[in-house]
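Most newcomers find our protein records easier to grasp once they have seen one. A record pairs a protein's sequence with a compact description of its fold. An example says more than a description, so a record of this kind follows:
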Amino acid sequence: MPRGPSRPPWSARFSPGRFSPARLSWLTRLRRAEGGRPRPLRELLLIVALFAAYKLGRLFAAGRVGEAFGNAREVWHLERTLRLPSETGVQDGLMQSDVLVHAANSYYAFVHFPAAVAFLLWMYLRRPGHYRWIRRVLVGLTTAALGLHLLVPLAPPRMLSSTGLIDTAARFGPAVYGAPQSDAIANQYAAMPSLHIGWAAVIAVGLVATSRTRWRWLWLAHPVVTVAVVVATANHYWLDGIVVLALLSVTVLLLRPPASEGTASEGTASDGAGDSGTTGSAPSVSSNSRTG
């Protein structure tokens, strides 16, 4: 009985030569992205554990009220010695509009933590190569801040009557803090350094580092607005922001970011073109095959 043409062996049918360079480039990028992304459940448990440890550590710093007010007076006098702008002037400008007051209080209450969670989720899903770096930066900065919270308890300016500042959240709302002596959730004597400013700066640094658009620098508006809000609402001193930005600078210098994902994609495409060149063909790889 005559036999039909024999089929090529299995290894030949699925050999790399049957795939185009663009296809190989896409598959390689996919494997790299998946390999760089931690397991979601483990990552969620890790972040929850770190956040719980941070909150517990802040509570350990509570109970040193006299020391916190003493440090607050010293910080206030140091700022005047350094001729930093008065926080009172910033708050006076805010108080000219009820809309601005409520907007600032709402920004302080509802943007800080949700923005950090949304940022980490976006980095995890869209920039897995940089996610681990950002997580390490955030953990390193928060750990250093917790150490200062334990070493230097500090009452915020809204509690220091000699500053002439008022607690805008308590007076106009919305407020996130209750009476300090009965607050079992937050340690209100941990103003130095400001993690509102620190986390906002991490978000801006991460988005600027991983974006390619010319508009990426607008993300710097987030920490700038945060500085204005925490000062105008009398939740932090200027020095709280200066110290946390110094800590962030050191953290970023110690924990260098990974290679750009766009550069890695270009390298992968070049490798694919090189491989195709060895087979005798020289197809061009268009820019549409890059993820950027």
Remarks:
- Confidence is low (pLDDT under 50) at residues 10-19, 30-35, 262-292.
- The radius of gyration is 26 Å.
